[in-house]
Protein: Acetate--CoA ligase
Amino acid sequence: MSYYQVKSLEQYFKHYNKSIREPRKFWDKIADENFTWYQKWDKVVEFDMQEADVKWFLNAKVNITKNCIDRHLSKRGDKTAIIFEPNDPKEEAQHITYNELYDRVTKMANVLKDQGIKKGDRVCIYLPMIPELAVTVLACARIGAVHSVIFAGFSASAVAARILDSQCKLVVTADGGYRGNKTIELKSIIDEALEKCDCVEKTLVVKRTNSTVTMKEGRDEWLQPLLDAAQPNHVAEIMDAEDPLFILYTSGSTGKPKGMLHTTAGYMVYTAYTFKNIFNYEENDVYWCTADIGWITGHSYIVYGPLLNGATTVIFEGVPSYPDFGRFWEVIDKHKVTQFYTAPTAIRSLAKENWEWVDKYNLSSLKIIGSVGEPINEEAWHWYNDHVGKKKSPIVDTWWQTETGGIMISPIPFVTPTKPTYATLPLPGVQPVLMDERRNEIEDNQVVGSLCIKFPWPGMARTIWGDHQRFKETYFTAYPGKYFTGDGALRDEVGYYRITGRVDDVVIVSGHNLGTAPIEDAINEHPAVAESAIVGFPHDVKGNALYGFIILKESGEDRNRENLKKEINEHISSHIGPIAKLDKIQFVSGLPKTRSGKIMRRILRKIAEGDFSNFGDTTTLLNPEIVDEIKNERL
Ligand code: WTA
Structure:
């Protein structure tokens, strides 16, 4: 029996039970039967969840790109690996076959080597959603360099902090990037970032927008001439199962970016397995995930998962609203997309528009539609089901995280009956538990608790780059022996999970995770600001938006408030990026604090939501009178 794909509900329970009773045998078989290895493992897994030490497929040797590309060439050489759909619908789409992908990746690998990049070196990738982004990611993996993709919407100082944290030696960027009717000047952002980064020796620049750029002598080079001169073919580096594959930064409860480190073999096995099951990929399908490769969804389910399965994956450069609100549906119709994977925020923004935008196009190619990034509300779920899925394509509401590497809780299409707003059941190999306030495991159903995972799975992050202590403290200390997700969840009477949202200081705005601490740090640097507290509040389209409570310094008191608000938002944009801007700013004379000096965010959250009914216990507040003032002046 093969465990690679679940085909019925009965089989799901069989596989699930096997994966719990005999996790080693379960993953051993999947890894053994579905990948190309230079050398197999001595041991499937070794772990100490107290110390946050986890290793999978010990001593196995592998290269993930051999599995993404080379092994498909004999059978699928002429099959399209990547369809590139440009921002401008008038620009022709590109179809890149597996043979061409091999050619491009190996040449890029040789370029990186020629630039002195060796196994273990970190390479920063700051590119728009163009094929070069996927090619560079794969070229790094080919030579064993650790890629650190930074979403091309982050500002120069956010980019610099990430480059410095992982000490990248080389940056691959572009002159600019198109997004809807905007052009983003990526190279000049990199120039500014690199003023602070001595570790970077070289910058390779892709030409995309023909923007005017300055090229620094000795550091910056156009990529194309190097590719033209590069040798074809490259013998893939032999990687240990636990060699680092990539770093991807995510938000945390302090201002310092958290570089999640994923390693090679476990991530490979897990993304391939989950892609196959969640998207039920069949040979001639065309799969499209609308995420950006700068986020984990793009890493696992635009690049690695699909290519590991020999799929055709769409890379879309644009946005859902450009040139009009029909763009997603037009692209599905044009490329006959069979699996479509997007975010609730996109669904909500399109559901606001006339549904005729959807009905204009033929969506009959669709078989499965998916959602990721935040809880999908009931209304959006039904709109997606009715207008896009036409009530026949199951919705896979997939819950997972940058830290988990791949999807953890999700319906398996045509197998698991769906239920609106529920991510439903854990995938085989995943052991979720809900914990109560006393840190005990909740056995009952119909209760909300903190979501933890009590057994390792192959795709989990192994550490925070350069800070294992922080990794341990953030994820493995609150509930000793378990991985704590930071999310709350409800389990219903049949064991389905519904994710209720973050229980920590991360707010998800339009699908982007934003730590409130780094935003507060940025605001507090503004000369007129004394202190600030940021919380999330519900927003129709974005899911959540940010509400800032700000105390001004005496010197800032006489300033024009509207100008100040603008300046504060510009400050946030330049420190973090436009995605972190505040929707509402309320100037206050104080913040509710406990006697130990901690801001009581619970109260601020309630005020921002407009829910004044029950602030809970406020007796521990040092300054309870401030609550009324803030409440009365709420925006
Ligand atoms: C949230 C994205 C509800 C959750 C893959 C998680 C979700 C965080 C869902 C991780 C979902 C993701 N339902 N909430 N289907 N998917 N989330 O690291 O709060 O960008 O902890 O990874 O997004 O976001 P990240």
In short: Residues 510-632 form a domain with the GMP Synthetase; Chain A, domain 3 fold (CATH 3.30.300.30).
